[in-house]
Amino acid sequence: MKISALISLVLLLMPSAQASQEGKSLFESLCMSCHVLSGQPTVAPPVFGMKNHVMQAYPNREDFINYIVHWVRQPDASRALMPGAVRRFGVMPALSYPDDQVRKVAEFLYDTNLRMPGWYRKHYEAEHGKTPRH
Ligand code: HEC
What we know:
With 134 residues, the chain is mostly helical. It has a single domain, classed as Cytochrome Bc1 Complex, Chain D, domain 2 (Orthogonal Bundle). It is 57% helix and 0% strand. Residues 30-31, 33-35, 43-45, 50, 54, 68, 71-72, 75, 80-82, 85-86, 89-93, 95, 97, 102, 105 line the site of heme C.
């Protein structure tokens, strides 16, 4: 592999400078037991799908973060952005994590380019009739 290709691959897999490593490890310990980063989902939507739905509804960074912090404290099936996931997995349980930790997770999610597997793109297009953003 050419060195430039290797460097861009490494950059792609790293969170951007703004996103803290702390947010990444908090995400891994608090959310990843349910929201998988790769592979097929089992108990919850995969992380890029979850991020993508919040991103469509709240493209602004601060709104995105506020939605996630509020959601984790108090999920509400009637206002869910992912009604299909609520039907498939049931609504997410309320998690009493400290807000500042969830905030760091949300910042990490917003600031990081997550890789989107091809199967998810097809699934999203079938469900929504348009290409997902990420
Ligand atoms: C015990 C399993 C579990 C854990 C842990 C979990 N989630 Fe979820 N989450 C779910 C399930 C199931 C759904 C899909 C149904 C729904 O939307 O409520 C979901 C949906 C979501 C959604 C979509 C909300 C919407 O409007 O539909 C967001 C955002 C989210 N999770 C964020 C997080 C974050 C951030 C964390 C870690 C701090 C986390 N979740 C931890 C199970 C979990």
